[in-house]
Design goal:
287 residues, alpha/beta, serine acetyltransferase, domain 1, UDP N-Acetylglucosamine Acyltransferase, domain 1, 2 domains, five-stranded parallel β-sheet
């Protein structure tokens, strides 16, 4: 009887160890296939250990999920829910979008990389995901944009309103925005219905991509790749901002800006050349 008891205990312990190892290997496998998700999880575990008061929040938001997409759906739903649209229902919508369109996940990772690369205040990959309103507003816009493309315009506009209320960022769901985007600080950013923003663009707080009045149709700016729009810049009308251009802080742009040019002033005029990629350099000085 004693021998059976000992053997049973050993078997139970072995099974428990095996299950723990299998679970760990499953988690490691999921994380290893997505290096950005793996890094976010590693950072979050360290932060949960060093700041116990946030442990519950960090586990609920990141560590309890298998993928970056699952964590995003949970986080956004809890940010955007209201008394009439529960977090559970919104999460189902967000997950539907993420599962239906893999490009959203691709853009999500490119946006995370953009924040980590360009924002000197961002020291961890998990920081924009958890705390930056610009990043969260941008990902929520991507869900609204998918809904708009599915002819679910009412729900897309509902999300636009909730994004504006929660993050102070107003992006029309019909606007077309590329990947590798950084909305730095983000408060007060407005992007109109027919605006187009290319890849690897940096947009600071208070920027408006707007129309010039009550004109209907295609009436908003078209922004190229690697463009830097500094704080408070107003770009108005169906005009083109060329690739690798830079718009100075507080400028009002009313006409096309050639590629590789710096413009500033009210109204904005060409004041210099940009030989590199201003959006990545984040240099707001006017030479």
């Amino acid at each position: 009887m004693l021998s059976f008891t000992v053997n049973s205990a050993v078997i139970k312990e072995t099974r428990s160890l095996l299950m723990t190892t299998q679970a760990h290997n499953a988690i490691s496998s999921r994380e290893s296939s997505d290096p950005i998700w793996r890094l976010i999880c590693e950072e979050t575990r360290e932060n949960a250990n060093s700041e116990p008061i946030l442990a519950s929040f960090l586990h609920a938001t990141i560590l309890n999920h298998d993928t970056l997409e699952a964590a995003l759906s949970f986080h956004l739903a809890n940010k955007l829910h209201s008394s009439t649209a529960s977090a559970l229902l919104l999460r189902e919508v967000i997950e539907q979008a993420l599962c239906s369109d893999e490009s959203i996940g691709t853009a999500l990772r490119a946006d995370l990389h953009a924040f980590a690369e360009r924002d000197s205040a961002c020291t961890q990959m998990s920081t924009p995901f958890l705390f930056y309103s610009g990043f969260q507003a941008l990902q929520a816009y991507r869900i609204a944009h998918w809904l708009w493309g599915q002819n679910r315009e009412s729900l897309a506009l509902y999300l636009q309103n909730r994004i504006s209320m929660e993050f102070a960022v107003d992006i029309h769901p019909a606007a077309v925005i590329g990947q590798g985007i950084m909305l730095d600080h983000a408060t007060g950013i407005v992007i109109g219905e027919t605006a187009v923003v290319g890849d690897n663009v940096s947009i600071l707080q208070g920027v408006t991509l707007g129309g010039t009045g009550k004109v209907s149709g295609d009436r908003h700016p078209k922004v190229g790749d690697f463009v830097l729009l500094s704080a408070g810049a107003k770009v108005l009308g169906n005009i083109k901002i060329g690739d690798c251009a830079k718009v100075g802080a507080g400028s009002v742009v009313l006409k096309d800006v050639p590629a590789n040019c710096t413009v500033a002033g009210v109204p904005a005029e060409i004041v210099g050349r940009c030989c590199n990629q201003p959006a990545l350099e984040m240099d707001h000085e006017i030479e």
